[in-house]
Design a protein that fits this description.
GMP Synthetase, Chain A, domain 3, 8 helices
């Protein structure tokens, strides 16, 4: 909730959406939260896809220009096993962010919520302040997390079969 609220405030502050549109999106967001549909549980999704008052690509380009954010497409990225195994899926859904690589003491994090100070603060605390940020789409994050969850469920099921066979 906090990540979404603060993202919305930043979108208004940067003149990317109107306050009236944010208020409408916030009402819709509260309805979606109770439905437990993770893929739709995003104020950004409400503004960009449901209400069509914000273009997600334009937002990414804005962040590249103003914040020097890099961009990444997770669909074709081979995420290292040690990063994938350490991924906290519920935290990723809550922040619309995914750690996708590690180089020395730096963690690379892809996010659709870079403008939310709560998201940046969470991951920087979680990773000891050593985060390199990359922008990506909501769809990219959601597809990756759904695929990761399916892989984890398959591994868990296989482990149970092995344990049951003993």
């Amino acid at each position: 909730m906090r990540a979404n609220r603060l993202l919305g405030a930043q979108l208004v502050e940067h003149n990317l959406v109107k306050i009236a549109d944010l208020e409408t999106a916030s009402e819709k967001f509260i309805e979606i939260v109770s439905s437990n549909e993770q893929r739709r549980c995003s104020i950004l999704a409400m503004l960009a896809y449901d209400m069509k008052v914000l273009n997600e690509d334009s937002l990414l380009h804005y962040q590249v220009e103003t914040d020097g954010l890099g961009l990444v497409d997770l669909r074709d990225y081979e995420i290292p096993d040690e990063v994938r195994k350490a991924t906290d899926v519920p935290a990723c859904w809550a922040t619309w962010s995914v750690p996708f690589d590690r180089e020395e003491e730096f963690t690379f994090v892809a996010t659709a919520y870079y403008l939310s100070p709560a998201v940046r603060a969470y991951w920087e605390k979680e990773r000891g302040g050593r985060v390199l940020w990359f922008g990506t789409t909501l769809e990219g994050i959601a597809d990756y997390l759904e695929q990761l969850s399916a892989q984890m469920a398959g591994i868990h099921a296989a482990q149970q079969l092995v344990t049951a066979g003993r």
